[in-house]
């Protein structure tokens, strides 16, 4: 790993809190995106990542590519796969899927194996399977008539002409008779 990559790896470790094979997977995904599209970091929603897992590697994507749940450009489509779809708004898209890894390695051996590989050896590069997600929506918020907490409109229900949050208006249990 060259000096710049070593610095990037350390930034990921500092953010994540420890080294692990999962973080290395995300680090190498980010390295592959940078290789494919050049050094880019999403200031807003220019770059979007749809990840099919919620594992450690997602932290490296946040650090190196600037995708985050808070900005709405890191979206979770949980399928239990080490697969990541990236989109440049108004431009390119790509899906990266981790290939098979050798079995029977210790955690440390797996970490070293992942970091020693060229990212192109690790991932299958292909077209995305889902359309580019819309930009993160902005919603008005209102005070819940029962608990008094400010709640975004999609999570409010109208109950007896009052705006009520989902916590104060849980779904009713359905009983089937027949």
Mean pLDDT: 92
CATH class division of the largest domain? Alpha Beta
CATH architecture of the largest domain: 2-Layer Sandwich
For the record, give the distance between the C-alpha atoms at the N and C termini, rounded to a whole number.
66 Å
CATH topology of the largest domain: 60s Ribosomal Protein L30, Chain: A
Attribute tags:
5 helices, 2 domains, 178 residues, alpha+beta, five-stranded mixed beta sheet, two-stranded antiparallel sheet, elongated, 60s Ribosomal Protein L30, Chain: A, Wheat Germ Agglutinin (Isolectin 2), domain 1, 9 strands
Condensed summary:
30% of the residues lie in helices and 21% in strands.
Question: How is this structure best described in words?
Answer:
It is built from 5 helices and 9 strands; from the N terminus they run ααβαβββααβββββ. With 178 residues, it is an alpha+beta fold. It folds into 2 domains: 3-126, 60s Ribosomal Protein L30, Chain: A, CATH 3.30.1330; 139-178, Wheat Germ Agglutinin (Isolectin 2), domain 1, CATH 3.30.60. A 5-stranded mixed sheet has the order 2-1-3-4-5. The protein has a two-stranded antiparallel ribbon with strand order 6-7. A hairpin with a 6-residue loop joins β6 (141-143) and β7. α2 (21-37) packs parallel to α4 (107-116). The model has no long low-confidence stretch (mean pLDDT 92).
């Amino acid at each position: 790993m060259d000096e710049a990559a070593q610095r990037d790896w350390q930034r990921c470790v500092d953010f994540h809190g420890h080294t692990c094979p999962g973080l290395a997977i995300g680090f190498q995904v980010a390295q592959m995106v940078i290789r494919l599209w050049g050094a880019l970091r999403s200031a807003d929603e220019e770059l979007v990542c749809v990840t099919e897992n919620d594992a450690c590697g997602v932290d490296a994507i946040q650090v190196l590519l600037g995708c985050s749940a808070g900005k709405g450009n890191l979206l979770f489509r949980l399928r239990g796969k080490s697969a990541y779809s990236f989109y440049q708004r108004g431009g390119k898209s790509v899906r990266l899927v981790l290939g098979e890894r050798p079995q029977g390695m210790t955690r440390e051996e797996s970490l070293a194996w992942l970091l020693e590989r060229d990212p192109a050896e690790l991932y299958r590069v292909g077209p995305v399977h889902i359309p580019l997600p819309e930009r993160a929506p902005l919603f008005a918020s209102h005070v819940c008539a029962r608990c008094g907490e400010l709640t975004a409109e999609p999570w409010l229900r109208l109950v007896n002409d009052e705006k009520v949050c989902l916590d104060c208006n849980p779904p009713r249990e359905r009983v089937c008779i027949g």
